[in-house]
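Tip: read the tokens left to right.
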């Protein structure tokens, strides 16, 4: 399974950015959980948001009300809409998928999001 992320970049505080990530490979299935994690310099990787096949979402408290995760199952793509960005949102954002039935997780290459204050 491969995950190809796009989006990200530099934005001023209060602005918006969107990320997308498409899964490919014969091992991937639309029932997989997909989502986003992030890692800021000197910090551990942390959950941002996930979405399961049925569309149920889970968010970290620090992004609730600002970020929205969604997916297009037919395109094997997960999205992250980030609004009201803060400088503390600056991090490398990683796309993620969990093939729970196989006990496997996959990560994308990471995309940089930089929020200037």
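Filled-in amino acids:
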């Amino acid at each position: 399974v491969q995950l190809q992320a796009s989006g990200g970049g530099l934005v001023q505080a209060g602005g918006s950015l969107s990320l997308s990530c498409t899964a490919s490979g014969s091992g991937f299935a639309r029932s997989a959980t997909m989502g986003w994690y992030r890692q800021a310099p000197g910090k551990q990787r942390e959950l941002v948001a996930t979405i399961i096949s049925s569309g149920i979402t889970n968010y970290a408290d620090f992004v609730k009300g600002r970020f929205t995760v969604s997916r297009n199952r037919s395109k094997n793509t997960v999205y992250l809409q980030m609004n009201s960005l803060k400088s503390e949102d600056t991090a490398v954002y990683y796309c993620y998928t969990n093939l729970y039935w196989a006990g496997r997780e996959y990560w994308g290459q990471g995309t940089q999001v930089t929020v200037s204050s």
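The chain is about 0% helix and 55% strand. The longest strand covers residues 91-99.
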